[in-house]
Specification:
six-stranded antiparallel β-sheet; single chain; Immunoglobulin-like; 13 strands; mainly beta; seven-stranded antiparallel β-sheet; 61% strand
Amino acid sequence: MAVVEELIRSESNGAISFGNHKLEKKAKLEDYQHAGDLLKVKTFKEITKLEKNGSFLYESVPGTSVLDFTEKADGVEFIVEGDEDTQITIGLADDKAYEVFVDGESIGAIKTKFGGKLSLSVELETAGEVPVKIVQI
C-alpha cells in the first residue's frame, strides 16, 4: 500500500500522486506547482480533495490515496487506494458523456451536467489499489 507521505508529488511520467487516507488529522498543501498549474490538496482518513487553479478536480469520501493521476484531453486516469469503499467525484467537462472503467471493467456511461461533475463508487475494502479510467465518448 502506497500512501503519499508528502501529500502531493509530481511523478516522472508527468502524472501526480496525492492524498493520504491513513492520516487521523486533516492536512493540506496549497500552491503546489505542477505543469504550470497551482494545485491544492486536503486529505485525511475521512476525505481527500484536490483543486487545480482554484477549481474542483477530485474528491473522495472517505479519504483515499491517488497514484499516477493523469488528465488527458478526453478524460482522466488514476489508481486509487483506500481502507474502505469510497465515493469519488471528478471535475470534467460540462454536459458530456464518459465511459467509466473500474479495475479494467466498464461500469457504463455517465453523463455530466452543468458543472461537469461525475460521481462513481469504487470498492476498495478488500481490493488494495484499483485502476480507474474515465474517457469521453
